[in-house]
Specification:
Blueprint (H helix, E strand, L loop, with lengths): L2 H32 L4 E6 L8 H11 L13 H9 L4 E9 L3 E8 L2 E7 L2 E6 L4 E3 L10 E4 L16 H18 L2 H6 E6 L5 E5 L5 E5 L4 H15 L8 E5 L7 E4 L3
Parallel strand pairs: 1-3, 4-7, 7-8, 10-11
Antiparallel strand pairs: 2-3, 4-5, 5-6, 8-9, 9-10, 11-12
Length: 261
């Protein structure tokens, strides 16, 4: 077959494909324009329960408006996703419709790694330091840091810590949590983490009466090494309960204070 003929046939086939695609697209659009949203199906990508299906329905009703009965091709999927992702506990959402009239929504919730608690006030942080509020009906099973948390936040705050000190302090506590979570020994040993008004961290270890003064959340690996050295070299030479506090906040120092001093 001559080259001009093959070229002409190719052009004709491409045109036929484009025309067929256009007719198909038009047919699909016509079908979609006659279909309406009849129900909502919410799927969760995790086992967290900060948000449930009823919450999603109520949130859309309050912020998006009616969607049941709306034409499928008129449902504003990007707007729905943006609305849901504005919720403090939702990190990602994906919305789509199917020809059976169902609006599907996939929800991925923000996973906390720590809870900070100061009396009745508290908040969660995820692994990147994003802050979001506690939930009334669900409590995540994560380590708790209690006491005079040196981070001043308005009620319901979400986002990064509002100032450099708060970001550094939270980041340091997250780093300590990362180190501890990678060690089965420290996971078993550390029973409680408290915070002094100056932001210093205090650790209580399982089976020990001493309080370990870690200081500001920085240089944590070295401080835990000094606690380990105390437990291995100093504590065995004294009777249980001999020391009230063990201070490792200062570089290369272990300062032990007796209970009666």
């Amino acid at each position: 077959m001559k080259k001009p003929v093959r070229y002409a046939i190719g052009i004709v086939l491409i045109l036929m494909f484009c025309i067929g695609t256009g007719f198909l697209f038009r047919h699909v659009r016509q079908e979609q324009s006659s279909l309406v949203c009849g129900t909502l199906a919410v799927h969760f990508a995790d086992s967290l329960r900060f948000v449930n299906e009823e919450d999603v329905r109520n949130y859309l009703d309050a912020n998006y408006g009616p969607y049941i009965g709306e034409r499928l091709d008129s449902v504003q999927l990007y707007r729905i996703e943006a609305l849901l992702e504005s919720h403090s506990s939702v990190i990602r959402s994906e919305a789509w419709t199917t020809g059976d009239g169902v609006l599907h929504i996939d929800i991925t919730q923000r996973a906390p790694v720590l809870r900070f608690q100061n009396g009745q006030n508290g908040f969660y942080v995820d692994g990147q330091g994003f802050i979001f509020p506690l939930h009334d009906s669900f409590t995540a099973s994560v380590p708790v840091v209690e006491g005079a948390i040196p981070v001043d936040l308005p009620a319901g705050y979400k986002g990064e810590a509002p100032d450099d000190f708060s970001r550094r302090w939270i980041g340091g506590v997250l780093e300590m949590n990362r180190i501890v979570s990678q060690s089965r020994s420290w996971q078993r040993s550390i029973k409680h983490v408290r915070v002094r008004p100056n932001g210093d961290l205090l650790l209580t270890l399982d089976g020990r009466s001493e309080e370990f003064i870690v200081g500001q959340p920085e240089g944590i690996a070295d401080k835990l090494t000094r606690i380990d050295r105390y437990l291995g070299l100093i504590a065995p030479s004294r009777p249980e309960g001999y020391y009230r506090t063990v201070n490792v906040k200062y570089n290369q120092q272990i300062i032990c204070r007796q209970k009666d001093t």
